[in-house]
Amino acid sequence: MAKNKRQGRPPQPQHSKKSSRSRQDKRQRLVTPNTDRQLTRVASVPLVGSLAILTTAMSRLLDARIAFRFSIVVAGAMLATGRRTAASWFRRAGVRDDWDRFYELLQSIGKNATSMILWLSR
User: Fold this and answer.
1) Tell me, what's the pLDDT at 114?
2) CA-based nearest residue to 92, from 106, 107, 105, 75
3) Segment 28-33 mean pLDDT
4) Could you state, in order of their start, the residue ranges of all structural domains in the chain?
5) Mind listing the pLDDT tens digit for each residue in 56-98?
6) Which residues of 50-83 are buried (b: 16+ CB within 10 A; e: fewer)?
7) Which of 6, 7, 90, 81 is nearest to 43 (CA)?
């Protein structure tokens, strides 16, 4: 049998075992609700006219608990300038501390995109 040849390089250093819990542990923070959290109920510039009617009809295809956020995101997307990312839409719409809920809305829109797009063809 052939012997293993030694390589010219020393072995890679290994990480040491953790002796204490991470200081970045978020479990305790997620268990306790934040009473100072400001929720967004309406856009800073609400939609009007036929665009408001269209977004209301499209939002009926979403879960009722998150449907009201759809018009807020659409208003922010129309007002956003510069890099058109979801974060810039939320800033322009006046979203406060509940950003995570609006990202969940975008995930839900992605799942229901084919049924929601039918409203645009009418």
Assistant:
1) 83
2) 75
3) 75
4) 40-117
5) 988 888 889 999 999 999 999 999 988 889 999 999 999 998 8
6) eeeebbeebbeebeeebbebbbbbbbbeebbeee
7) 90
Structure tokens at 106: 């975008």
The dihedral built from the CA positions of residue 66, 91, 121 and 118, taken in this order, carries a sign that is negative
Place of tokens 């969940």: 104
Backbone angles phi, psi at 112, to 5 degrees: -105, 20
Residue with tokens 């510069």: 82
What pLDDT, on a 0 to 100 scale, did the predictor assign at position 84? Answer: 82
| Side chain identity at residue 62, one-letter code | L
pTM as predicted: 0.69
The DSSP call for residue 17 is P
Amino acid type, 8 = G
Reported in sequence order, the residue ranges of 70-113 that DSSP labels E, i.e. its strands, are none
- Are 96 and 89 in contact by the 8 Å Cβ rule? The answer is no
